[in-house]
Amino acid sequence: MAQAKINAKANEGRFCRSSSMADRSSRLLESLDQLELRVEALREAATAVEQEKEILLEMIHSIQNSQDMRQISDGEREELNLTANRLMGRTLTVEVSVETIRNPQQQESLKHATRIIDEVVSKFLDDLGNAKSHLMSLYSACSSEVPPGPVDQKFQSIVIGCALEDQKKIKRRLETLLRNIENSDKAIKLLEHSKGAGSKALQQNAEGKFN
Description:
This is BAG family molecular chaperone regulator 2. By secondary structure, the protein is mainly α.
């Protein structure tokens, strides 16, 4: 009888310790779950800052190469470029890096996708129109919506093999490249229009003199 009481007491002690360990483990797991949410929020915030930096640099560069910048005096242009360069320099002092965890297959897919885009970019000067069409087909391959034009199926399969964060970055890069091409097209058209208007005015002046 006495031995049974001793065994019962010992078992009770083990049960209390086990219960205490389970509670402690549960609390630690809950803390880690909360920290995981904060870690993801940190990555999202850092990614947002990274994107904002890219947008700011693109906007500054766009202003420096705008048609309006070409139509002001040299002195004003120099002063504005100094301000733009100062802003660009301050923007570049912000260093944000969000590393993406990839397996070997995802790493290889990213390299392949990047190489394809780089090859298209290298052809900008040779054939801007064809390069734009190619970029549109690459961008359509990254879109979840029904694309308005053709889709590069091979590129799509490569992008699907990339990590989700890399897929977003690839799409964002293509958007930026297409915007830059669109801005270049507008600048060229404006320049051609101004040249055409200038030639027409000169012709009218010449005709007026002869008449």
